């Protein structure tokens, strides 16, 4: 029994559901919702949702268990994790277990809107991918996969060891394809410390959406790519080489590496 | 109870020893004194006996009995002489100072006669000791000494007119004198008494002295320690003994104080982490509960704001709601962040293994350079808690640098690992320093040997300027921004609020100039000589910890070396001598990683001879 809903919200707080309903309806998305995790899972299995927005703390099971279920059963439905208990650990946990995004409560209308737009776009890309065969050329048609020797953090950023223990980082093309054309990038200054899973930079796109990007590793920013200051389109043109963002001196690589995935094992 | 006390036991033991020593001494001394006295009396009695014999000799020859009696009686008048008797050959008393005994006849077994007549054949000659005997006349009378003096037959005797003795007699009779020993005995008793009194006095005074000092040196400090342990047992961790003594108990007290201090610090930490844990739980609960309603407020207000575009009045009002809700969000977020401060996670690592791995990675480069690598590993190296990947990078960078500096021939790289014990001076870095008003004194911009320096305002006479103090405790590579004259003290103050950092009435123990004081947050205070060129510094908090162990890795090459000008800048980012080949970041990465691990790195180099990098990581137990 296929349904007509675009988005499934799993949250036990009515006000959150109402908020999401409000935002989604503006952009003409239909929203279904449940307040229990197990019910949510049933709906996921039965229905064909384009996007799931799931809270971590639910009355019965928690959001991570739902995430795990999706991961195990390779249900390629993009899921956004939201939580009122937003810690970096939770963010890392969500992003490394297949969530395409992590939205901490409370969020603004705009934050939710940009998040949903990214999610819907992501869903569309997956749908198109499924339609096509798995050949690389087809894949390239939708987005450029990250080089196999790179490491990625969730679906947003990549890192690659450079000379002398430094790591270069940048944005995955898959992420870039879910947002509009980049208008502005705001990076933390050189010398500042970042933590893995932290929302370390923001991208403003042509539609005025503000997109948050998660840091792939913890460390100190040694250098920012000056070329993108001159030509911002470089990020989209060459996301894995000339469009890199920053050079990072990691400070707990051992731990961070556990949360990084080799790009060679990508499913998409 | 009193017998269980240490002091009582000690006093008893010492007194017992004293009694034995004094007793033995007294016995020996009394015995010898008695012998001397008795010998003297014996000699005296013998002399007397000879005197009597000789003074009556002539009278005997003419047989004038009255005269003889008179002489004997006269001599016997001497107070100590008890009796003078003359026996004839048959044992009959013929003369005596005591008239009653005249005519008494003694048997051969009587004590006067037994000396000679104990054998069947009587002895005719006697030694001096045999002539005398000491005895009591009655069991309860005083002791007397008796001297017998045989009167031998002489030519004048048997040729005398009285013809009382014939020529063939050898012994004519016996002179027996008894002398009272009352005086001697009295003397001896007096000596005995004196020695006993002396012994008693010395034992008592010895006991008292020992008691006094044991009380002072042992009892009181022990009592204090016992009191302190009791206080500790009931949970008072702030109690201190504060002993000034330097003896073993003083050391014990001080180490006790240190222990309680550490305990209280540990307790504080435990308490703190407990507090943090419960705070974290609270924060998590609060965050979840508050964030949900806040989400409603924020989304709806930001939605309204979007709709209110074109209505400036409404827009500004809604802006307030959105702004303040965002502020609440930040507060909750900070609360959460505060409750779960994340620290980089590190693991126990064997540095030797990491070096081996690093060498493996650069194996090709080593072969290309044809370099020889000498490894001098300490096999007993303790494991340290580090990020092995990062540490490996440090070694790779340093080894690659060393390889680059090597010449074509005979290139050698020596890598040595060891544990060194170093005093904090010259090692410990001051990472935070504040003025009395808590203004930060650290200057991240101005670095000394790569480390942020301590910036203070200095005044000397009319000159004012800034001095950047060396952040390494005990080193003095200060950078002076004002002209100063050697050996002249300067006045230091906070560059932010100008409060003086000088300590009133202070005198540097080395030169007497006043000293300055920097507050090191959570780590006490550092004081130092204010004289230009003065080298005295004291940081009690660190000094108290004494020497600490460091794991040192020495990477030495015999390459081209680095000039002094270059040496100053090698850790600066983007500084490179390799031109296009390097990024200029290698050594600053090394520096960053070592610093991240609370380690220290320093470099020594001589152009044409080689370069040595030394890295030290603190060895932390547990």
Structural description of this entry:
The complex is a heterodimer of chains A (268) and B (622). Chain A is an alpha/beta fold. Chain A is built from ten helices and 15 strands. In chain A, the strands form three sheets. A seven-stranded antiparallel beta sheet of chain A has the order 10-13-14-8-7-6-15. In chain A, helix 1 crosses helix 5. Chain A is globular and about 50 Å long. Chain B has 622 residues and is an alpha+beta fold. Chain B folds into four domains: 182 residues, PAS domain (Beta-Lactamase); 91 residues, Helix Hairpins (Orthogonal Bundle); 149 residues, 2-Layer Sandwich (Heat Shock Protein 90); 103 residues, no CATH class. In chain B, the strands form five sheets. Chain B has a five-stranded antiparallel beta sheet with strand order 2-1-5-4-3. In chain B, helix 1 packs antiparallel against helix 2, helix 6 runs parallel beside helix 7 and helix 9 packs across helix 11. Chain B is elongated. The mean pLDDT of chain B is 82. Chains A and B meet through helix 1, helix 5, strand 14 and helix 10 of A and helix 7, helix 8, helix 11 and helix 14 of B.
**CATH class annotation of the largest domain in chain A:** Alpha Beta
Q: Structural class given helices, strands, pairing of chain A?
A: alpha/beta
CATH topology of the largest domain in chain A: Rossmann fold
Helix fraction of chain A, binned, reads 25-40%
Largest sheet, spatial ordering of strands of chain B: 2-1-5-4-3
């Amino acid at each position: 029994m296929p349904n007509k809903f675009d988005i499934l919200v799993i949250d036990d707080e009515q006000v959150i559901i109402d908020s999401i309903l409000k935002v989604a309806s503006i952009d003409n998305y239909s929203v279904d919702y449940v307040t229990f995790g197990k019910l949510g899972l049933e709906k996921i299995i039965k229905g064909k949702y384009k996007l799931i927005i799931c809270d971590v703390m639910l009355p019965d099971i928690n959001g991570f268990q739902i995430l795990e279920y999706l991961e195990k059963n390779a249900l390629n439905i993009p899921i956004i994790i939201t939580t009122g208990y937003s810690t970096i650990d939770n963010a890392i946990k969500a992003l490394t277990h297949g969530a395409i995004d992590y939205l901490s409560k409370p969020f603004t209308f705009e934050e939710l809107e940009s998040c949903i737009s990214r999610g819907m776009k992501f869903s569309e890309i997956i749908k198109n991918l499924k339609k096509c065969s798995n050949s690389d050329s087809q894949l390239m048609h939708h987005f450029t996969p990250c080089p196999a020797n790179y490491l990625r953090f969730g679906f947003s950023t990549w890192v690659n060891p450079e000379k002398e223990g430094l790591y270069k980082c940048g944005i995955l093309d898959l992420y870039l394809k879910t947002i509009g054309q980049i208008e502005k990038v705001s990076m933390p200054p050189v010398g500042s410390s970042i933590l893995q899973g932290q929302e370390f930079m923001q991208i403003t796109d042509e539609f005025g959406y503000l997109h948050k990007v998660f840091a792939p590793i913890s460390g100190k920013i040694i250098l920012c790519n000056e070329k993108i200051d001159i030509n911002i389109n470089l990020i989209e043109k060459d996301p894995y080489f000339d469009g890199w963002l920053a050079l990072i001196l990691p400070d707990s690589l051992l731990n961070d590496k556990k949360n990084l995935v080799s790009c060679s094992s990508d499913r998409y | 109870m009193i017998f269980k006390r240490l002091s009582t036991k000690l006093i008893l033991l010492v007194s017992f020893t004293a009694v034995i020593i004094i007793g033995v001494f007294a016995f020996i001394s009394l015995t010898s004194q008695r012998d001397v006295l008795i010998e003297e009396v014996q000699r005296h009695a013998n002399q007397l006996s000879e005197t009597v014999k000789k003074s009556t000799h002539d009278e005997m020859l003419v047989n004038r009995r009255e005269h003889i009696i008179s002489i004997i009686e006269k001599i016997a008048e001497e107070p100590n002489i008890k009796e003078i008797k003359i026996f004839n050959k048959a044992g009959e008393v013929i003369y005596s100072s005591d008239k009653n005994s005249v005519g008494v006849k003694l048997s051969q077994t009587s004590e006067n006669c037994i000396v000679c007549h104990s054998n069947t054949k009587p002895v005719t000659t006697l030694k001096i000791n045999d002539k005398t005997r000491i005895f009591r006349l009655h069991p309860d009378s005083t002791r007397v000494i008796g001297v017998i003096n045989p009167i031998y037959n002489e030519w004048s005797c048997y040729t005398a007119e009285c013809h009382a003795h014939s020529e063939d007699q050898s012994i004519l009779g016996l002179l027996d004198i008894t002398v009272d020993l009352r005086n001697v005995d009295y003397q001896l008793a007096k000596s005995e008494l004196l020695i006993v009194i002396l012994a008693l006095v010395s034992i008592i005074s010895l006991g008292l002295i020992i008691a006094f000092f044991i009380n002072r040196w042992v009892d009181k400090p022990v009592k204090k320690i016992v009191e302190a342990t009791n206080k500790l047992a009931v949970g008072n961790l702030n109690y201190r003994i504060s002993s000034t003594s330097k003896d073993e108990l003083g050391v014990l007290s001080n180490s006790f104080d240190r222990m309680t201090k550490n305990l209280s610090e540990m307790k504080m930490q435990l308490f703190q982490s407990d507090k943090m844990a419960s705070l974290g739980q609270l924060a998590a609960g609060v965050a979840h509960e508050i964030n949900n309603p806040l989400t409603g407020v924020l989304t709806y207000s930001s939605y309204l704001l979007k709709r209110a575009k074109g209505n400036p009045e409404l827009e500004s009002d809604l802006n307030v709601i959105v702004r303040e809700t965002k502020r609440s969000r930040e507060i909750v977020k900070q609360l959460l962040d505060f409750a779960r401060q994340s620290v980089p996670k590190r693991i126990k690592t064997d540095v030797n293994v990491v070096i081996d791995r690093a060498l493996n990675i650069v194996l090709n480069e080593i072969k290309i350079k044809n370099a020889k690598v000498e490894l001098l590993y300490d096999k007993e190296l303790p494991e340290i808690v580090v990020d092995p990947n990062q540490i490996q990078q440090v070694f790779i960078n340093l080894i690659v640098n060393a390889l680059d500096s090597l010449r074509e021939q005979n290139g050698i790289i020596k890598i040595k690992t060891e544990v060194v014990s170093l005093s904090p001076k010259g090692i410990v870095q001051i990472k935070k320093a504040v003025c009395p008003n808590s203004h930060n004194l650290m200057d991240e911009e101005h670095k000394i040997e790569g480390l942020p320096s301590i910036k203070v305002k200095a005044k000397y006479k009319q000159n004012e300027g800034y001095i950047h103090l060396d952040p390494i405790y005990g080193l003095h590579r200060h950078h002076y921004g004002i002209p100063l004259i050697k050996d002249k003290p300067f006045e230091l103050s906070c560059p932010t609020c100008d409060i003086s950092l000088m300590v009133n009435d202070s005198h540097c123990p080395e030169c007497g100039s006043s000293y300055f004081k920097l507050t090191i947050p959570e780590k006490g205070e550092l004081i130092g000589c204010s004289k230009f060129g003065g080298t005295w510094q004291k940081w009690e908090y660190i000094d108290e910890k004494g020497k600490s162990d460091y794991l040192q890795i020495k990477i030495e090459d015999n390459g081209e070396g680095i000039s002094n000008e270059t040496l100053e800048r090698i850790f600066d980012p983007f500084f490179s001598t390799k031109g296009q080949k390097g990024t200029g970041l290698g050594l600053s990465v090394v520096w960053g990683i070592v610093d991240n691990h609370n380690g220290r790195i320093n470099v020594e180099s001589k152009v044409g001879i080689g370069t040595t990098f030394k890295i030290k990581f603190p060895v932390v137990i547990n």
